[in-house]
Amino acid sequence: MAEEIPQLTTYPAADEADQIASLKLIADSVAQQRQLAARSVIFHPVSVGVAMVPLAVAYRILYKTRGDWPLILTTWAGCVMALLLAVRYLTGGYIDEAERVGTWKWLNTATTTATDTGAGFDSTKSTMLVTKFGENIIGTLVLAEQKKQTGVIRAWTVKQRYRGKGVGRDLLEEAVKFCRDKGWEGPVFDDEHANSARVLPGMFNGGFDGGEKRAREMLAGLQST
């Protein structure tokens, strides 16, 4: 008999185990931003240009005869290693940020989106929407309520292997439905949502900014239907 395909379900997390798993998924998504940031730095034209300088200098100083190539290649390898260590250091802020979010303290902290509007923030009314594939949580969305009854999305993420399969869109759709059922405005993305941190200069953040723009456009499209 063929193995039964696990069911995909989305619902508000009620028990602590689901909430802890959701917070861990949020923290993991922030930590994964380090890899994307590192890739952005390594392949950026400015970085490539900078990296070529020590390689060219080493070649110019060390090359005298063909027998110098082993030394040159070893020096180049050292330069590349030093550059990779520099990238690792520059993107380390995402690990610090991952340790900050995905915790009960973060979940219960007021946000700029709430306080700037003067609406206030009621942490006791945060709702975690989770998507389960069988018994595994593969997506989560944290929806907080401002006291002026506007839904604020503080986190929205999907497990890496399930991204691009519509799970994230379904979570946003559930958030829109949840707000309508409650009679709330929104939802809107929090300006300080879990994945909003940028630890690198702006020229390296194009991938993150583009992804955020697409997410906001997707949410606006769902709200207009």
UniProtKB/TrEMBL annotation:
Residues spanning the membrane: 41-63, 69-90
UniProt cross-references to SUPFAM superfamilies, sorted A to Z: Acyl-CoA N-acyltransferases (Nat)
Keyword hit for Iron: no
GO terms of molecular function: N-acetyltransferase activity
Sequence ranges assigned to domain N-acetyltransferase in this UniProt record: 85-225
Pfam families: Acetyltransf_1
Gene3D superfamilies the UniProt entry points to: 3.40.630.30
UniProt keyword terms in alphabetical order: Membrane, Transferase, Transmembrane, Transmembrane helix
Name of the protein in its database record: N-acetyltransferase domain-containing protein
Native species: Penicilliopsis zonata CBS 506.65
Native organism taxonomy: Eukaryota, Fungi, Dikarya, Ascomycota, Pezizomycotina
